[in-house]
Amino acid sequence: GTGADNDLYINQAVVFIEDAIQYRSINHRVDSKSLWLYRWYYSRTWQWILSLTITIILALAFVEEPSSLTVTSDVRYRLPAWNPPCGLTEGIELLCFLVFLLDVSVKSYLIGWKEFWKNKWLMAYIMTLIVSLTDWIVSLSFFCRESVRIRRILRPFFLLQNSSMMKKTLKSINSTLPEMASVVLLLAVHLSLFTMFAMLLFARTKDNQQDKEWVVYFRNLPDSLTSLLVLLTTANNPDVMIPAYSKNRAYSIFFILFTVLGNLFLMNLLTAIIYNQFRGYLLKSVQSSLFRRRLGIRAAFEVLSSLRETPPNAQQFYVSAGAIEQVLQKVEMDSRCKQAIMRSLKICSCDQLSAAQFQKLFEELDKDAIMHHPPSPEYQSHFMQKMQFAFGHPYFGYLGNVVALANIVSICVVLVLDADKQPSERDDFFLGAINCFFILYYLLEMLLKILAMGLRRYLSYPSNRFDGLLTVILLILEIATFAEYGFPHPGWRPEFMGLLSLWDMVRLVNMLIVFRFLRIIPNMKFMALVVTTLLDLVKNLRAFAGILVVVFYAFAITGIMLFKGAVVPLGNTSAANTTHNNATLQCGTYEQLEYWPNNFDDFAGENVISWCSAHFQAEFTTYLFSVNLICRWAKIYFVAWWLISSVIWVNLFVALLLENFIHKWDRRCQRESLSDIEYQGTVELMFRDVLEEPTEEELMEKLHQHPHLQLCR
Predict the structure, then answer these.
(1) Residue 578 pLDDT level (bands cut at 50, 70, 90)
(2) Which reaction does it catalyse (predicted)?
(3) Residue 263: which residues within 8 A CB-CB, separation 6 or more?
(4) For the structural domain made of 382-523, what CATH number should be given?
């Protein structure tokens, strides 16, 4: 029995440490069977199945009716889309629901029923599944002909509930909303006051020729609000001002005041408030994650101290080094961290570790991930040593950058000279010859660098991998070009042979050469700092991107249900007649601009509209579209989307970007050159300097509240 208990304690410690690594809660069942089920649930296999299931159920919107499987979304030329037969996508949905049912059942069992009733996310998960299955049954009852499917809007919830970081981010956003609402209310007051001033200032007069401002922009309250709201985004500036400004230059003061107060002051104030408030709530979230990590490590210590090797009457509890080694052999963690912890354990040379020593041992998890590059080869030959010194020197890399710049300049010169020539008039001899020369130089440079640095050290640098991959692709394309069309010679002109024409292959080679010029980034310290900030931001933006996907998806489905079929082409659909009729249409309208591909008839097209509406330049046309082709109430949909996407989400993105860049900028002097050591940052590391370590009393109090773990003290 004692041996079985010891195995249980080891397995409990393994799971607690894995919880600490992933910042997971330790409030779950800790018996042998539950621990096995818990590790299986968080295994790569099950998490991969769950992620694939979420991807599939979200992707169904592209296939199910109304299907997005058409070449174009233009209502004038679009052919009828293929729609799957009734039961096909519904069958796939049912399989996904079964996976989700298994997922929520395992989660509910592992945390226990007492914790289940406290977990609002799990209860919402079950309610979402019940509503989705009910709607699925109703859909089959109507033979898939119903126009409204509630379960489509609920699908993003499966993505949201599966990510703890997305939940934390959503909670932070929710906590920031009151402060944002105050500024949004101030914006609404600003907009309302200036709308009333505008309606008084540009009221209708007896002279109809002088009423263009009133006719186009301020005819009534909805039009006035719309015009000034779009002006707040600067999308219709200066168009909205021109009719009045042409009458009297003093009218420009009204529009300048509105733009300065609204755009420069209030919108930027909103950015500042969001940055300040969100940073505070994000810090709290990261502090909570740190507490979870420390709690998991301390829980592992407590169960290991219950092993038979620990004296029962000891005043201070210890854990043997042998028990820690057993745990490290079983735990799934990064090999770098595991090796570092094993080294620290050997350096300590202690048979037993206290709680403080045990916690310090696992602080390796909090450190930056550092990658040291392999050493260069050691040559015995004096000549090879000279070669290694010459071609491994930074100046050789600078020479390569100069050559790459010369390549770009030569391509630009050729493109400028041939810009107005027909394909049949071009002589590609010069372009082909210089491409051949530069690609041979790139190949020689890559081989010499490998000779100087060794293959392993060469490949350890991301810039070299990028450089080498493009060089190999360029070489393959150049060989394929020579094999298909022969070597460059005077009169070398494009001919359509095989998959690509000569000109297509030359263009592809030149695009890759231009792309290859990005190799200069690591050699420019400030640019490298900006790029590494962006790359780290991309890695840490998964939660933000996930929430953006959720919002995009929900708005797209809502737009399809509300506005599907609203866009109807005018009269004859021939290109010639459409172009001719444009002369009779009002300038700047949806019809005159031929925005027919922007419609709500399928999921893909609706997502394109949402993306365009999130950018200021498309707002004015989108509003006109909503007024002319749908109804005035459609403005509410677009205003809500603009507030969420452009005002809230973009400012949150700016907040995280600023925080990430400031963190990098403040620490740039404390680190070695980016070319020697690579550091990988996380959101947790950004706030590490200001995080507070939890006290032992806080940890023990939390552990004693564990619903399934009984401590020996």
Answers:
(1) very low
(2) Ca(2+)(in) = Ca(2+)(out); Na(+)(in) = Na(+)(out)
(3) 232, 233, 234
(4) 1.20.120
